[in-house]
Specification:
- Strands 1-2-3-5-4-6-7-8-9-10-11 form an eleven-stranded mixed beta sheet, with helices on both faces.
- By secondary structure, it is of the alpha/beta class.
- The protein has 20 helices and eleven strands.
- The protein has a domain at 8-407: Alpha/Beta hydrolase fold, catalytic domain (Rossmann fold).
Length: 604
């Protein structure tokens, strides 16, 4: 079976959410649209401008948005040579060269074979026919892909780079700034617009700052009465950004280099955003998927010891990461990458040509276990002193942060769950695969598979699962995705807002379909009297979600007149559920004993 992915600019029905979710979850390597740019050096006296006019396709034709875009602004020195695998450094000032912004750069990219194989079962996942998946065919597809990858590498170690995006470079630490004209023209005149810094997703293995077009969101901000200055950043991916472990760090490597990249970019924003009309005291960071889990770790950075944070608020959509607190696990990942490079030390790796490092990175991601992209955030005793759930529970996070907004879909992990998980034995194997230390504690495994996620398929258990695959999906979702929102909201209860996005099929990052809906979908007068508790179409849902985001960024409160009320999380775990049947208040589905159990981090 195959599926056609619809251009989101042609969306006209609720299926748009499914297509967008899959496009982001399965096709992040698509070539992004390159926009015209302005240019910027490290000093605004060395600026070469080109005005970029966005003609909004929004039906509110009076809101034509003239904006200034600054593309490919360097925020860090090239992380090459001795700076490979090291903390990012502030770039040297070179006033003899103007950054034209016309050369796009993205960081090392990779795609897992299991991810490609999963595409073969997407139609069944979308239709709700997970029980009809041909297990043997799915297994063979993945085996064939892995064999093909191995054969390619055996024949030529650089074979995986044959179709590499020409923009890929180790020298990739750049950002883009979108400054609406009115905000830009007020720069230096005593007023600054709110700022959103967006951290892209992609499983810490793929994606770039070019993946997200903020035009529609900026349009909505203007409709809502206040411009937003939008910043999107690159950060190192794969082995370049996420190696860790005792040997790696003892050899001069910096664990979680990608988090340090993000932090340096946020510090750049603090120092420079006023030049674009933004207010450094009104910065909201937002991320989706791996980007959202990055935001989570920016909130708990250094256990809160380096407060205040270089941002005031945060939005997290579907925060996803596979926890990696074990030094043994971190060392194993490092050793594997060294073996692909055919070297024995980080010093040797730093001497290799870039193509060798890129090829080994692609191979390590391609052969990653099902549901993993090979690399993730690691507990390092510094930036990440412990798992974020534990840090939040014990008050070790940055308390200068004012407000939080979180969200997740109902079937977050379905696209990342091995479709061959069709019986109790396979489910038990999946649990141990996530937590290898559990193999020595069969009684603990029994508790997980019989009490937390019992073989009861009447819809009464976690995420209302009715099949073995949905049972495994519920387990994966809570362990790696949705419980993180619960931990955050418990810590920020009286200054946080949480939504559950239930528009079918409600896959990973599904709400992005609404938050970044192209503005031509928003037709008619969306501010008319809408009954938000009755059936809603795509445009109405998108209008609500965009307004929630823009009002939160501008004021710290997502509410405004004419939109369904978005209540504070509070002590009663209140959320809103967004669906085609309406937007209603409810109790958080992730406020449960299972998330309390996983927060303890007993088996990592």
């Amino acid at each position: 079976a195959s599926i056609q992915f619809v251009d989101p600019r042609t969306w006209s029905s609720s299926t748009s959410v499914a297509h967008y979710s899959l496009r982001h979850a399965f096709l992040q390597q698509r070539p992004p649209r390159m926009l015209p740019c302005q240019s910027l050096t490290s000093d605004m006296n060395y600026i070469r401008r080109r005005t970029l006019t966005f003609v909004s396709p929004l039906s509110f034709d009076e809101y034509l948005l003239t904006s200034r875009q600054f593309s490919n602004v360097r925020y860090a020195a090239p992380p090459v040579g001795d700076l490979r695998f090291a903390a990012p450094q502030v770039p040297a000032v070179n006033r003899s060269v103007v950054q034209r912004g016309d050369v796009g750069r993205i960081c090392a990219q990779g795609s897992s074979d299991w991810f490609t194989a999963e595409l073969s079962v997407v139609p069944d996942l979308l239709s709700g026919n997970s029980a009809s998946i041909n297990v043997s065919e799915a297994t063979k597809t993945l085996q064939d892909l892995r064999a093909q990858t191995s054969a390619q590498v055996a024949a030529n170690s650089s074979a995986l780079l044959a179709n590499q995006d020409p923009r890929v470079s180790e020298d990739c630490l750049f950002l883009d700034v979108f400054a609406p004209k009115d905000a830009f023209d007020l720069a230096g005149k005593g007023y600054g617009s709110p700022v959103m810094v967006y951290i892209h997703g992609g499983g810490f293995a793929s994606g770039s700052k070019a993946d997200t077009d903020p035009t529609s969101l900026l349009d909505q901000a203007k409709v809502d009465g206040e411009d937003i200055v939008f910043v999107t950043i690159n950060y190192r991916l794969g082995a370049f950004g996420w190696l860790s472990g005792p040997e790696f760090q003892a050899s001069g490597g910096i664990a979680n280099a990608g988090l340090h990249d993000q932090r340096l970019a946020l510090e750049w924003v603090q120092k420079n955003i006023h030049l674009f009309g933004g207010d450094p005291n009104r910065v909201t960071i937002m991320g989706s998927s791996a980007g959202a889990s990055s935001v989570l770790h920016q909130i708990t950075a250094y256990g809160g010891k380096k407060s205040p944070a270089p941002f005031a608020q945060a939005i997290l959509e579907s925060p996803g990461f596979a926890p990696m607190p074990s030094a043994i696990q971190q060392q194993k990942t490092f050793d594997q990458y060294m073996s692909y490079l055919n070297v024995t030390s980080l010093t040797d790796a730093r001497q290799l040509p870039s193509q060798a490092l890129l090829a080994a990175n692609s191979l390590s991601i391609a052969l990653a276990p099902f549901g993993s992209f090979g690399y993730s955030i690691a507990v390092d005793g510094d930036f990440v002193p412990a798992l974020p759930g534990q840090l939040l529970a014990n008050g070790f996070y940055d308390k200068s942060i004012k407000n939080i907004m979180t969200g997740h879909a109902l079937n977050e992990a379905l696209g990342f769950t091995d479709p061959t998980t069709q019986n109790d034995t396979a489910f038990r194997k999946s649990v141990i695969g996530n937590f290898p230390s559990l193999a020595a504690y069969p009684d603990k495994v029994d508790y997980i598979v019989n009490t937390l996620y019992p073989p009861i398929f009447d819809g009464s258990q976690a995420q209302n699962y009715t099949t073995q695959l949905l049972r495994a999906s519920a387990f994966n979702s809570e362990v790696s995705l949705t419980c993180s929102n619960y931990y955050l909201n418990k810590a920020f209860a009286n200054s946080s807002y949480d939504y559950e996005f239930a528009v079918p099929p409600s896959l990973h990052v599904a709400s992005s379909a609404s938050i970044f809906t192209p503005t031509n979908v928003l037709r008619g007068n969306m501010t008319s009297n809408i009954d938000w508790k009755s059936p809603l179409d795509d445009a109405q849902i998108a209008y609500a979600m965009q307004s929630y985001v823009t009002r939160f960024v501008a004021t710290g409160n997502p509410n405004k007149d004419g939109i369904a009320e978005f209540g504070i999380y509070g002590g009663d775990n209140s959320v809103i559920v967004v669906n085609t049947t309406g937007i209603v208040g409810a109790r958080a589905s992730v406020a449960n004993e299972r998330c309390d159990f996983w927060r303890k981090g007993l088996f990592y």
